[in-house]
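Case study 2.
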Amino acid sequence: MIQSMDENLFFRLYSLTMESDFLGEWMVFITNASSTLFVLIYLALLLTLLIRKNRNIVPALGGPFMAFILVYVIRIFYQRPRPFMALDIESLIYHEASGSLPSMHATSAFAIAAAVYLVHEKLGLTALALAALTGISRVMVGVHFPLDILTGTLLSALVVYGAYRFFTTKRVFHKIISILKVS
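Prediction:
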């Protein structure tokens, strides 16, 4: 049932790009530009926290990194075929025939956006909207199912929030600082 709903939603979104060249070109642009955009957002966040000597630098580094590693580990054990492989369709961008669940792009975008949100709520909302657009574009160009995006989104939210809760408790923060001072 879930797979059927996932495929149905995929076809609804993917078919929009098949019906409109303009929309298809925009989705390709968004999916291609999003990696660079989120790297720039992430570097700006880290640089700002570093310059301000803000202790949120530790969870801002740790949360997205842990989410990335978790996706990598999940994909070692579970290889869900991408839509262009499973449904014998043509994707609008080239992508290798690797596992698709969870989406690395969605996980990375949402992890960075969540890190921004936990530091600056208004900028974080903008970053979350851009991450959502990134996820939708990945479905619309034919390289991910909606469930791949949703899984990456939930995974990144849980891991980044967990990292912030863990690293921002006073006891853990002071322990880290004392270790850094000794070194």
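The chain is about 80% helix and 0% strand.
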